[in-house]
Amino acid sequence: MELDGIKVVTAQEMRDIENRCLQKGYSELEFMQQAGVSISRQVEKFIQERGLPKEVLLFAGKGNNAGDGFCVGAILVTKGYSVIAYPIYPVEQFGALCRNMYENFCAQGGKIEFSLEKIRERMNHGGLILDALVGTGMKKSADNELASAIKIANCSKLPILAIDIPSGLNGTTGEVRSIAIHATKTIYLELAKTGFFLRDGWNHVGEIVRASFGLPEDKVKASAYLLNLSSLKLPPIQRSWHKYQKGYVVAVAGSKEMPGSAILASYAALRSGAGIVRLFSPDKITVPYEIIHQTLDKDFDTLDQEIARAKAILVGPGLRRIKKTDKIVQHLLKISKPLVIDADGLFSLAKHPSWKLPSSCILTPHKQEMKRLLGSDTKEEIDWLFLCQNYVEEKQVNLVLKGAPTFIFTSGHLPLIITQGDPALATAGSGDVLTGVIAALLCYRLTPRYTAALGCYIHAIAGKKAAKDLTSYGVVASDLLNYLPKAFSSIEYAT
Description:
- By secondary structure, the chain is of the alpha/beta class.
- It folds into 2 domains: 220 residues, 3-Layer(aba) Sandwich (Rossmann fold); 258 residues, Ribokinase (UDP-N-acetylmuramoyl-L-alanine:D-glutamate ligase).
- The protein is 41% helix and 16% strand.
- It contains 17 helices and 19 strands.
- α11 links the parallel β14 and β15.
- α3 runs parallel beside α4, α9 packs across α15 and α15 packs antiparallel against α16.
C-alpha cells in the first residue's frame, strides 16, 4: 500500500516548481484565480461550520500572497460576504499581479480601510481574519508595519485563516525571527511546506488543509510526505488462530525503580493485537494478571528460549542506564527477530555507535534521545529531516522521531509526517505505550515502515479520543490503554 501522501517541500522547492510551470507557458494569473476559488471555498466552509457572521477582515501585504487574498476577497464579496481589506503598505508598492487583484477587489465592491483604529472596531463584529500579509518568501525579521499587523491579528479574539503559510513563519525552517501569525487554520497551496513541521512551525499553523490551484504533476523530489491515511488498514486476524499465532511479544523492560514503563509497554501490546506478552526484567516486579513476568537469568538462556517462539521483541523501557542494559541490548541485536528499541535501550545504542543494527528493527526516540544517537550536544533545533534521514541510511534501520508532529524515517524512502494526535500525548509513559503498540503490530509481518506508520497513527488517535473525554490536560499514559481499542475500531481491515 502507498503510504506516501501529499508532498512536503521547502519554500525554494515550491518556487522552483512554479517557475518551471511558468516557463512552460502556464499563466500566473490563472494560477492565482484558481487558488482564489479554492481558498474561498475553505473560508466559506469554515464560517458555516463555526456559525460565524459573514464578515472577513483581510490583512494584506504587497506581494503574491496579498494578491491571493484580494482574489479571495473579491469572490466572497460576490457571494454576499462583507470583506474589508487592511493593506499595510501603500498601493504604489504592490507587485503587478497584486495590484491587478486589488483593483478587481475594489471593482467588485470590496472595502478598503487604512485606519488601524477602525479595523480594531470591526473586530468586535465577529467573523474572521484572513492572513494574506506575506507568504513563503519570508526570509528576514518582520518590518514595523508587518509586525504591527501580526500583533493586532494575534491579539484579536477572531479566528485567523492563513493563506499558504502564517505570515512571519519561515516556509523552509519553521523559524520565527520576531513575530508570526498564530493561525487557527492554514490553507496551504498544493504542497505542504517543511516549515509547518519544524521548529516553531507546528505552534503557528493550526489545522492544515490543502487548496489546489491547478499545479500540474511535477517530478521534483520533495523533502518529505504527509502520511496517506487512507492507505492504513488493519491486518486481518484468522478465526482459527490461538494466542501464540495471533502474536507473541517478548518484552525486556522494567526494574524495581521503574516498573511502570514495562507494564505500560506490555499492556499496550496486549491491547494492540498481541495474543500473549512475556515480560523479562532484571528485578522481580508486580504486573497485571494478563502479563507473564520472569526475572532475567544471567546467561539469557530462558530469554532466548522464549524469543525463539516469539514473533517480536521490545526492549528498553525502564531498564535503567546501567552496564547490564548494554549487555541485554547487545545480545538482542544479534537475534533475527523484529525488534523495537526505546528509552534506556536507545541510551545504550548512543553509548555504542559502532554496534550493527538489524535492518528490521525500529528505533523510537524523542528529540533528546535522537540528539544522543546523532552525537549532538547542541541545545538548539537541528535539521531533523536531513540528519535523521542520513542516520537511517547509514545504519539501514527504521526510526520513529516522536513529537508533535511525528516523523518516520526509513532507508530508501523519504520521511513520513504524521500530524494527528493531541497535546494529551505529552505525558510520561506515552512513549512506552507507543512501543508496545508497534511491537504488537510487528507480529503481523508487516513491513517496518508500514508498522511504524500504523502504530503511530493508532497511538495518535487514542490520544485524540482520550483528550476528547478527559481533556488534553487530564490524560495520563494508562488512560491510553483503554482508548487503544477505540482507535483500532476507527480503522478498516485490509481485504
